[in-house]
Amino acid sequence: MSRPTKANIVIDMEDVDKDDEMDEMGIDATEAKTSRKKRLVVWKEFEIITNSGDMKARCNHCKHNLAYRKGGATTHLKRHLKLCTPRKATLVGKDKGPKQSLLSFDVTEGDEMLSIFKYDKGKVREELIKMFVVHEYPFRMVEHEFFTKFCRSLNTKYEPIKRQTLKLDCMKMYISEKESLKLALASINKISLTSDLWTSNRSIGYMCLTGHFLDSEWKLQKRILNFCPLEPPHTGLSIADSISECLIDWGIEDKISTITLNNASSNDLAVRVLKENFEAKEKLHFGGKIFHVRCCAHILNLMVQDGLTEVRDVIENIRESVKYLKLSPSRLYKFNEIVKSLKLSTSKRLILDVPTRWNSTYAMLECALENKSVFSRYKERDYNYKWLPFDEEWKRAAEVSKFLEVINDVTKVFLGQKYPTSNLFLRQIWKVRKMLNDMSTDNRDFVKRMTLKMKEKFDKYWGECNLVMAIGAVLDPRYKMKLILYSFPKIYPADDFQRHIDDVRESLEFLYKEYLSVDSQINSSMSSATYDSNLSQAKKQKTDDFDEWVITNSDIIPGNKSEIDMNLDEGVYKPGNEEYEDFDALNWWKANSLKFRHLSKMARDILSIPITTVASESAFSAGGRVLDQYRSSLKPETVQALICMGDWLRQDFGVELASNK
């Protein structure tokens, strides 16, 4: 047999240990090899190697080589173990042996403080749950090998957990967070609701219910209250029952002021049922005048879709052209090469629309019109291309695009802000109506057809004044009644606009008196004695010459003038150009709450009413991510916990998810 060529040869530890033990006890190894199997503890942390022909004891922790002689003492090995730094670190990780405190910097209210770091297993688990819920990571990721490696690289004490454990922890935190939110909602006087329905990839219907309210700092808040399955059929009664159960569960059934829904017929029935329930309990706020709010974004979408059905032929060749190019990478490459040769912008790629989504049609037309000259040049290079639009079709498409641009700008107001207040919408709706009025005088047939169809839908839903939108505009100090007086004659027929103006003013007075009545009841018991005393003193006083002179030579402000009259008589507020678009009506009322004690409370509640169901609809994109094809087996209660708690934590920490995630 040939000799080994490696420098280090690992000896069989079993044989070495047995020989050493017997040598130390004075027993011949050869004689007792089969009778004694005891091993010294020290050899569990050393291995015997040969280094350049010499036998050495190598430490398993620091890899240091120490002297070794068969049958020799092991005292120096034990002494080394006591001083071995890597071994100490290992023992500390196992809660054995001496420990050294770690220092960390804690930041409290901007001040850094040096403190002793202590690994908190419970805190780590809590932050882990929040990370998975807020960012919608799949539970299985917690078991990934490199996720565990990463966590242990941050702290060697990290203990991996199973996905089932993480799920149970999420459900426990959901219950805890729900109780905290319940406690917070108990101090809120009025809550507005938005709701919508969604069907998952497993054909399970879900209803999302979102609550909107103002906190003590006059900041608009929204929280998803329920994301629960709804058994088919989705009738108005089943929707109303599900909403009622949710409100009772949260303990807010007496705090609901309005509910915003889309225009489905089942929602109309649901609203009637809920309204009757609140009325029977005498908990119908605002006298029920503005209880049902129709989603403005949904109405706008229906109106535009109806109009576009009348002009499909106008944009058909553009749609077919885009489809033809996008079906072949080689065709698209040729098209883009022409774009580059003409030095046109390459930032916008060709977009094929979804016919049921008008905003995608607008994006398709906008991009195609920018590349109008490219299509004709492409035709010269591809004889199979048969859908090149005529000049007249390009002109018509430009008119349609111009109209959709206005609608798109209006929609951005509805959808583009985190919390759009109700005062923002009337001015946008007036713009749409003005555009329809202008287009109705156009002599071109396709414009007339499109305009007529959209005006029918506009009048169907906005033929009667949307009181929330109108009153919200009046409570905007930039508009007050001026916007009503200016826009209503343009929105409504000449013989009908005054009736709508009167309705707004009467409703404004009615709501104000309701707030005045509530405040009066609260203050009556506290101030009755003081009021009687002051009244008796006033009767004893007599009018002197100065009082008579003031009456005859001055404009007297009536003592019974309401806060509404005082506010409207002051004229409109004109912010600077830079702050006009970012003007916050709620902040203005907060600053003037002492001046308008009752009216400011009314403004708080009216301006916080949501005009669209966007807040509830946005949860469905989260629902699609949480309940994707890989997690379709999640139970509905788990889905609800993940959606709701994810929303609550994101609101608390100011985290936003990318919409295209």
How are the strands of the biggest sheet laid out side by side? 9-8-7-10-11
Helix content: 55-70%
Q: Class by helix and strand content?
A: alpha+beta
Largest sheet: 5 strands, mixed
Low-confidence stretches: 1-38
Tell me the radius of gyration: 38 Å
Helix count equals 27
Give the overall average pLDDT: 83
What is the overall shape? extended
Instruction: Determine the strand fraction and express it as a percent band.
Output: 5-15%
Distance between the termini: 65 Å
Number of strands: 11
Give keywords.
661 residues; 27 helices; disordered N terminus; extended; alpha+beta; 11% strand; 56% helix; four-stranded antiparallel β-sheet; five-stranded mixed β-sheet
Quick description:
The protein is of the alpha+beta class and about 650 residues long.
Structure overview:
This protein is α+β, with helices and mostly antiparallel strands. It is 56% helix and 11% strand. The chain contains 27 helices and eleven strands. The strands form three sheets. A five-stranded mixed beta sheet has the order 9-8-7-10-11, with helices on both faces. A four-stranded antiparallel beta sheet has the order 1-2-3-4, with helices on one face. The chain has a two-stranded antiparallel sheet with strand order 5-6. Strand 5 and strand 6 form a beta hairpin. Helix 7 (163-185) crosses helix 27. The longest helix is centred in the last third of the chain and has 44 residues, at 497-540. Residues 1-38 have low confidence and may be disordered.
